[in-house]
Amino acid sequence: MRVRPSASFAIRLQSVFRLSGAGALLAALLQLAPAPLLADEGEWPPEQLAAIPKDRWAELKGRGIALSAKDLWDGQGGGLMTAVVDLGGCTASFVSPEGLLVTNHHCAFGAIQLASTPEKNYLADGFVAKGRADEVEARGGASRVSVLTATEDVTVRVRGPESAFARARTDLARYEAVERTRKEIVAECEKEEGVRCVVSPFWDGSEYRLMRRIELRDVRLVYAPPRGVGDFGGEEDNFRWPRHTGDFTFLRAYVSPQGKPAPFAKENVPYRPKSWIRVSPDGVKDGDAVMIGGYPGRTLRHLSASAVESWESWQFPLRSRTNADLIAILDAEGKKDPAVALKVASQIKSLGNGETNARGQIEGLRRNGVLERTRKEDAAMGAFLLTHLELPITVRTSPAALEAVLAVQRQGRDRAYFLGLIERGSGYLGSAISALIRADERKKPDLERDAGYQDRDLDRAKQREKDLTRSLVPGVARKALAYMVEKTMAASTAEGEPIRAFVETFGAESRAAEIEEKLAAFDAVTLLADEKNRLQGLEAASEPLRASDDPYRKLAAALKPDFDAIRRKEKEIGGALLVVRPRWLRARRAFEAGQGKPLYPDANGTLRLSFASVKGYSPREAVTYTPRTTLAGVLEKERGKEPFAVPAKVLEKARAGDFGRWAPAGQSVPVGFLTDGDTTGGNSGSPTLNGKGELVGLNFDRVWENVAGDFGWNADRSRNVNVDIRYALWMAEKVDGAEALLTELLGAR
Ligand code: ASP
Predict the structure, then answer these.
(1) CB 194 within 8 A of CB 214
(2) Does 720 share its domain with 632?
(3) Is the peptide bond before 242 cis (omega within 30 degrees of 0)?
(4) Is 684 designated active site?
(5) Do 225 and 94 fall within a single domain?
(6) E-only strand ranges, 614-690
(7) In a domain, 650, yes or no
(8) Is residue 581 part of a domain?
(9) Which among 680, 703, 711, 719 is the best mutation to test ligand 1's pocket, defined by most ligand atoms within 8 Å of the CB?
């Protein structure tokens, strides 16, 4: 299918408004569009770049941004931003015409782990492919990359006056209508081989855009530094500055000899991207303007006070506690056996990241007084709406309507949280639940199945089971599951709705130790330990799965009504929010008009560009941080012990001052730098480009004072952390002798 090139953003918004009552919010945004703020706030969708006001572009040009909106995104599948790709929850970018990709070490961490054995431990020692033939298959999250080729506004079809959504009469029906239309659009888009599409909601479902992407399924590891570089500082330094982590890894995408996306196969050839980014060895100076392109996952910039409160006093504390408990379980087991430690490394790392992030969010929300500020805004907006009778009644009453939905959403939330963990959990029970949901969903026509359970998703589910074989340690998974079951039982009992399946299987008020004992008996007989059976389960019908004697399949079947009830409630709430959130946003925008806030949608996992400058900051009174770090700081932090154990080969070169061409005269090798970009999780691996569009670094983190930046960008504290690409080049040349890589990146010199 040929995707229409997008007209100017403004024109499209207006046409959306004329055609669909649902686009009213967007029209309101246009009419009320305030004077732009010349600040680096904003995660701009590529097709919106052309609509950024001229004076803002002039200001960017004055700061050294030499590219135009069209150079970045031409709407026809070209432009530098098409070199920025989605790496399953992270970002990567093409840096050579031969499909070479660069991303963060932490984004490839799972792939490096899955390729490692205790004897060939690439996590500990790093991985260097001397030639193409040495490159190894990347599994897990880094095993697929998606290249965006076009976007199209499909709002009218999803929720315009003629849509199924407009005709639906209940919240559930509204949700299902939107989902069904999204899937229809995706199915049409995916008729072309190798294309993977997604319809993404913007402004909480006020607007929908189709993203047409080429999905490359053969990704290989090319060069990863040892963990002592790539993860230097570990969780202790995570979300901190000053930072000295060499958070980079190189991958390569391959396609079939015919140039088509294909699964891993020896005869595949490197993919030739339409655009790729040149690496600059010249670095950045303080104050330099840069651009950061990437796939930010989620920001929460437009919430009412009760929603902020829910994040601050429920969601983040719960996540912090749960992750900390799970880390303690995995850590203790890992300490007993290095082979176990290797298998659980990636899980610990991602739990640790989530835990630190949750604490940072809570601290930031408190320190910045976000809840108090939002309460005041809600009150002022309420007063504003009372007197603005020109606004539709549905908009004026939207705050109360929104609160009513949120109150229902909060009921039973602990139980739903823990059941969700179990469902997504990596273990035999998670596997059995996933197989049963898949079997039940398969009874419906493909387009009516829940997202994630269509035929197009089977391949990924199979991959997950195969990856599980490489990372699962039954004794450890059992301990983690016992913990989660205990928590789920306690939460559901406290909420007055005990889970029968658990009570009957484990006994009321069971503690983790007793549950674990029963699970050990399950593990002794389960057939799910065999990958073949788990894979078969993914394609089995409901009846045999339900009739199975396997204890995990039995438990999954007994739990299924609970999962069904949760899913149904989520759909109903989702349908209600699809109506009320756009109205509320319209009210908020009317209230904020003239306050000079830039208009960009919350992050939603789609491609964005952020403009920024290299800049330090002051985290607190009397403390100022300069924005750049070097190898000298790595040596200062080195303790010979994780997470500050610098590998011997790196120490030797660093101590000898063997910096080659990578350090400015008289200085050490640059390692990290700060910029004031508008980034969040998902931006990990994002290329940081200089004004000419050349790669000077990779975004990999934010500072502690900016973890709660998800709730709002702030000129004084919004800082993202980048690794200087010269650190990677120095490592490749001086430490690892990765000559072929250097030549590919910089040409023969
Ligand atoms: N290091 C972060 C992450 O992957 C990126 C960020 O949050 O800015 O979650």
Answers:
(1) yes
(2) yes
(3) yes
(4) yes
(5) yes
(6) 617-620, 623-625, 628-630, 670-675, 687-689
(7) yes
(8) no
(9) 680
Same domain? For 553 and 471 the reply is yes
pTM score, two decimals? 0.93
Closest CA relative to residue 115, chosen from 216, 230, 222: 222
Q: How far apart are CA 524 and CA 56, in angstroms?
A: 65
pLDDT in tens, 129-138: 999 999 999 9
Q: Residues 68-97: pLDDT tens digits?
A: 999 999 988 899 999 999 999 999 999 999
Do both 418 and 562 map to the same domain? yes
In-domain check, residue 496: yes
Point out the domain boundary residue: 544, 571, 598. Answer: 571
Helix axis angle for 338-367 and 474-494, nearest 10°, is 30
Asked if pLDDT for residue 19 goes beyond 80, the answer is no
What's the number of domains the chain is made of? 3
Residue 390 belongs to some domain of the structure: no
Looking at the structure, do residues 631 and 697 belong to the same domain, yes or no?
yes
Asked if 485 and 564 sit in the same domain, the reply is yes
Q: Angle CA(175)–CA(181)–CA(184) in degrees, nearest 5?
A: 140
End-to-end Cα spacing for the chain: 44
534 in the same domain as 479: yes
Question: Is 80 exceeded by the pLDDT of residue 6?
Answer: no
CATH assignment at residue 654: 2.40.10
Distance in angstroms (rounded) separating the CA atoms of residues 158 and 164? 8
Q: Which domain holds residue 349?
A: 314-367+409-571
Any atom of ligand 1 within 6 Å of the Cβ of 702: yes
Residue 34 contacts by C-beta under 8 Å, 6 or more apart in sequence?
592, 593, 594, 595, 596, 597, 599
Same domain flag for 642 and 551: no
106 is catalytic: yes
Specify the DSSP class assigned to residue 119: S
Q: Which of 617, 499, 516, 508 is nearest to 563 (CA)?
A: 499
- Ligand 1, atom 3, residue with closest C-alpha: 681
How many alpha carbons lie under 13 Å from residue 249 in its C-beta half-sphere?
36
Catalytic residue among 6, 96, 106, 548: 106
